[in-house]
Write a structure and sequence with these properties.
six-stranded mixed sheet, single chain, TolA/TonB C-terminal domain, about 10% helix, two-stranded antiparallel ribbon, mainly beta, elongated
Length: about 200
């Protein structure tokens, strides 16, 4: 039986396997491209527009101060103030410290308004040095003009005894509205003098 199986396998006729194709292969379509022309830009592209920078809008609060002053001051008749000495006659005036450990510090400035009739040679060239007496609360008690300087184009200046056009009165009126952080001596608030400049 085994011999019959071996003979059957050996004597079986040879066959060639030929698979059948169920689809057709189409030829690929050939696409012809024209010659490509390389172009170059002659000029560079324009730059991008600059960014628009917004203008800063000030948000400071504007405080309008109306002055109602009925005092007339004739400065040539005023005696000059000597730092360190009070103006009282009785001797019971509060102590004024001439050189405190911490001098008065400006916390509010009021600019003097120049009258319209001031000549052009004075405008922008005039400087007044004002002496302030500041009390323990930072309020201005007294003011006086110590020096008036008229500057020339070369930077030098001329000292004037007085100046007209109401400029001195305007400076004194503005100086009385200044506010200071009071001077301190040994940790206590004291009266003291300080000097500031006003420019026209």
């Amino acid at each position: 039986m085994q011999v019959a199986a071996i003979l059957l396998v050996r004597l079986w006729p040879d066959t060639i396997y030929r698979p059948s194709l169920d689809f057709e292969i189409t030829e690929q379509e050939v696409v012809m491209l024209d010659d490509i022309e390389i172009t170059r830009q002659l000029s560079s592209p324009p730059p991008p527009p600059r960014p628009i920078i917004p203008n800063p809008v000030p948000d400071d609060e504007i405080i309008e101060v109306e002055l109602e002053l009925d005092m007339e001051i004739n400065l040539p008749d005023l005696p000059p103030l000597d730092p360190g000495f009070g103006t009282g006659q009785t001797g019971d005036e509060e102590r004024i410290v001439s050189n405190p450990q911490i001098p008065p510090t400006v916390v509010r400035i009021v600019e003097a308004s120049a009258p319209q009739e001031v000549p052009s040679e004075i405008r922008g060239n005039l400087e007044m040095i004002v002496n302030f007496l500041v009390d323990e609360n930072g309020m201005v008690e007294e003011v006086s003009i110590m020096e008036i300087r008229l500057y020339r184009a070369d930077g030098t200046f001329e000292e004037l005894p007085y100046v007209q056009y109401g400029l001195m009165d305007a400076v004194l009126a503005a100086a009385m509205q200044w506010r200071f952080r009071p001077a301190r001596q040994d940790g206590e608030r004291v009266k003291a003098f300080t000097r500031q400049r006003f420019n026209y």
